[in-house]
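Minimal example, chain plus NAP.
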Amino acid sequence: MNDSFSFEKTILVTGSGGQLGMELWKLCDEYPSYKFLFTTREDLPIDNFKLVKIFFEQQQIHHCINCAAYTAVDKAESEKEKAFLINADAAGNLSAICKAHQAQLIHISTDYVFDGTSSTPYKEEDRISPINVYGASKLRGEEFVLNNNSSAVIIRTSWVYSSFGNNFVKTMLRLLKEKESINVVSDQYGCPTYAADLAATIMTIVEKENGEHSQTGIFNYCNAGVVTWHEFAKAIKKFIKSKCSINPIPTSAYPLPAKRPQYSVLDTTKIKKTFGITIPNWKDSLHKCLSLLN
Ligand SMILES: NC(=O)c1ccc[n+]([C@@H]2O[C@H](COP(=O)([O-])OP(=O)(O)OC[C@H]3O[C@@H](n4cnc5c(N)ncnc54)[C@H](OP(=O)(O)O)[C@@H]3O)[C@@H](O)[C@H]2O)c1
């Protein structure tokens, strides 16, 4: 048998039809020594515990990257049970199954576990206190994941966008081309995250796990720099040279079913030090994504 065609380890990516899952799919060719199994909600619904159990019995999984989540932040306010089933119970179940099969779990969580009242970047160990149902369901998911499997890695990220799926960047691109003037919230601060950068970091963590530096626990990841949604929109406008005017508005002028944290800035010192990664600035990554989209 030709060794160059033998896969070393198998990586299961759940929820692979979403932004992050698609970015992992896009870079998987750069990792030829891994066999990737990309599953969607249709072929592996993580809330079907029986199916997940059978899947792990039939396939030898070494790493599981859980990109599956209930991410409809506003809808979650009226679909609490569904959000908790997918983001908490199903994540916890996946974690227990990974432990039983000695597979490394990399689970994705959110800045929405914090209430946004801080004025300095949130560290992993800072007080958690979600202010909406989605955040509460993701926090319960973190707890279940770690209680069931102390070897799991959880990455908290924020303001995710990609050339795949629906997100703020793609909405702005459309509106900036269609409208003469738009209103964008200017009193919420956060860190945009290009899902392609997060996907590359996840693969670095997978590779470290295969080496001597296996690490567990919670890590923050977002691009470097802090912006408001208004500043973020202005950077998109500048890139595409749109003539549309972008008016700054307060959160109170744009009421939504779910409350948003006012200050959602994550401190990424721990992930940079632990895994020896450098994190691109939000503007450089935004330009990469816009070059693909435009
Ligand atoms: N997007 C953000 O701004 C943001 C911010 C912070 C953290 N995060 C976290 O980052 C991770 C990745 O987010 P993303 O932006 O890639 O989300 P996404 O684009 O919404 O993708 C989530 C994927 O999960 C799938 N899914 C939903 N229920 C499922 C189930 N029961 N079983 C299997 N798959 C299921 C969805 O399929 P359908 O589309 O068919 O439902 C979708 O393909 C999530 O854990 C999310 O909570 C995201």
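DSSP finds nine helices and 13 strands in the chain. The pocket of NAP is lined by residues 14-15, 17-20, 41, 45-47, 67-71, 86, 90, 108, 110, 138, 157-160, 165 (CB under 6 Å).
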